[in-house]
């Protein structure tokens, strides 16, 4: 397993176009906690801290990029776009493109249960990889590597399943602008119990900004958040 990892990691470096000065950063980025938990001496050696760092770096890279690129977009539009890019669906798709799962140190149990293709593991590993590049070099190097992969996704977000997280975008915007949390309220229901339709509004500052209808409360809330964002963007 370890021999295979070392061999495969060299192939990964060719794909990302970066060569590590300190290979321990690379190994740390590729080590899932399930693997380190199997080895007593490496119990705390995994990619979770690099994932935390990489998430912050990718957030800054993306914010800086879309701020410069989309000068005419409103704050709400930029917040929505950033939330869609800085997401598990996008990061896991990039990771799948470079077959990142094939280079990870995983426990046997995780491998058997399909861990090499699990979106959460792949997305976290991509964040950790960017964090590792930052630690091994600098911000601008990490930025160049990250953008090489992000640029191919930014204009194709609608093709990536799961990027339309309207509630999260709305919450971030309302908290940042008004220092409040958006409130969702059930306006009513229609239809029999087995085929019920929910109508929900989202509001803050005693004003309704969006109304949504759906077969579940969650779906109705998402549609209400989407309508609110569209109104704010106008």
UniProtKB/TrEMBL annotation:
Residues of the RNase III domain: 9-138
Domain DRBM: 165-234
Pfam assignment, any one: dsrm
Principal localisation: cytoplasm
Compartments (UniProt record): Cytoplasm
Enzyme class, spelled out: hydrolase
GO terms of biological process kind: mRNA processing; regulation of gene expression; rRNA processing; tRNA processing
Co-factor requirement: Mg(2+)
GO molecular function terms listed in the Swiss-Prot or TrEMBL record: double-stranded RNA binding; identical protein binding; metal ion binding; ribonuclease III activity; rRNA binding
Active site, per annotation: 55, 127
Gene3D superfamilies in alphabetical order: 3.30.160.20, Ribonuclease III domain
Source organism superkingdom: Bacteria
Residues that, per the record, bind Mg(2+): 51, 124, 127
Keywords: Cytoplasm, Endonuclease, Hydrolase, Magnesium, Metal-binding, mRNA processing, Nuclease, RNA-binding, rRNA processing, rRNA-binding, tRNA processing
Biological role stated in the UniProt entry: Digests double-stranded RNA. Involved in the processing of primary rRNA transcript to yield the immediate precursors to the large and small rRNAs (23S and 16S). Processes some mRNAs, and tRNAs when they are encoded in the rRNA operon. Processes pre-crRNA and tracrRNA of type II CRISPR loci if present in the organism.
Homology family: Belongs to the ribonuclease III family.
Record text on subunit structure and interactions: Homodimer.
NCBIfam families assigned: RNaseIII
Protein name: Ribonuclease 3
Organism of provenance: Leptotrichia alba
